[in-house]
Amino acid sequence: MDRKKISVIVPVYNSIDCLEKCVESICGQTYSNLEILLIDDGSTDGTEKLCDKLSEADARIRTYHKKNGGASSARNMGIKLALGEYLGFVDSDDYIEPYVYDKLMKALSERNCVAAQISRDEVDEAGRRLPDVCIPPQQTQFCRAQDFVKELLMHRGDCSFCTKLFKKELFAGHQFPEGELNEDFRLLVEMLQEIDGIVILPEQGYHVVCRSGSTTRKKTKDSFSRVFLDIVDNADRMQKLVDEKYPDLHLYAVRFNLFQRLDYMLHVPIPQMRGENAFYQSVKKYLRAHLTDTITNPYLTKKNKIYLMLFTMAPRLVRQVHGWKMKLAGAADG
Fold first, then answer.
1. Of the candidates 252, 266, 255, 263, the residue with the CA atom closest to the CA atom of residue 318
2. From the CB of residue 147, how many other CB atoms can be counted at a distance below 10 Å?
């Protein structure tokens, strides 16, 4: 299998402080036949020069510079330029263990499938372990496509492309949606409809580095990442897809739809909770129209149901109280 080339695509933007560690972890793979595509997405902090320097140091690295267009556009460019039969993705602020692509390629060969996933963990900028977002399986398992969809609907599945290895041919007719922040989820759901499933390995070989300045973690008073809008849009797409292709998962999709809107409500800044905000009004209207689903859905927790019902009745007040609660919790932690 090591005669088959893997193309590892790394979208890069102003990553001067972490790119070298990321690339070194890919160069150190025990799987030898790979190329590394650094897609510089218009960096302005010197990262663009670092990409060129890294390419000069290792013949397996190819650097391409482009106008800034976001991670999805950089990944899409990498897919077009990739020479490998298999595609992997690594974010420039993350890093991987040396065995990752060796184990993923062996899993694809042994299970005779086209997609495999290594497990992941989350660490802070100092390298300290954080609570797992996705719980790894006890042993290697093959997850059927419908079961994987169910895990995504229950917020237990890993939608990240960075933890996966795919046959390149699967991307024919597909690309990462540009201009969105929940892009991995949307593309993975599209591709799951065309494959039998994904092999999942228990080893936590991919390390997600949680940085305080990342898109979804900015903590200013009125900051609000558009990811919270995209997750609602994706929930609507999922409801339609499930009802058409996976009707057995209907209640899971209803739960997902309600949960995504709850996530939106918990993050939307209070000044944006006004009548002229059409998106906010549509979420509020949805929660009121689906109050019965909130009460009866078996896959929502008791806490989920309480919050959803409160947001249905008095959204601004609940948001204020929740904000005070978070401030008190932060003060206690400090």
1. 266
2. 15
Question: 112, 197 in Cβ contact below 8 A?
Answer: no
Flag whether pLDDT at 220 surpasses 70: no
Query: pTM, whole model, 2 decimals?
Result: 0.90
The residue type found at 327 is: K
Instruction: Produce one character per residue of 218-241: b if its CB has 16 or more CB atoms within 10 Å, e if not.
Output: eeeeeeeeebbbbbbebbeebbeb
Cα(98)–Cα(118) distance, rounded to whole angstroms? 12
Residue bearing tokens 């972890």: 25
Angstrom distance (rounded) from CA 139 to CA 329: 37
Number of Cβ within a 10 Å radius of residue 42: 16
Q: Could you tell me which residues come within 8 angstroms of residue 317 by beta carbon, excluding any fewer than 6 positions away?
A: none
pLDDT digits (tens, 9 = 90+) for 101-133: 999 999 999 999 999 999 999 998 888 899 999
Task: State the DSSP code for 129.
Answer: B
- Kindly provide the b/e burial profile for residues 173-199, where b requires at least 16 CB atoms within 10 angstroms of the residue's own CB: eebbbeebbbbbbbbbbebbeebebbb
Find the radius of gyration of the CA atoms of the chain. Answer: 21
Q: Name the residue among 29, 176, 201 with its Cα closest to residue 113.
A: 201
Q: What is the dihedral of CA 92, 93, 95, 100, to 10 degrees?
A: -50
Give the separation between CA 102 and CA 256, rounded to whole angstroms: 35
What is the rounded distance in angstroms from the CA atom of residue 274 to the CA atom of residue 330? Answer: 27
Task: Return d(Cα 151, Cα 147) in angstroms, integer.
Answer: 6
* Tens of pLDDT, residues 19-42: 999 999 999 999 989 999 999 999
Burial of 270 (0-12, 13-18, 19+ CB in 10 A): middle
Amino acid at 44: T
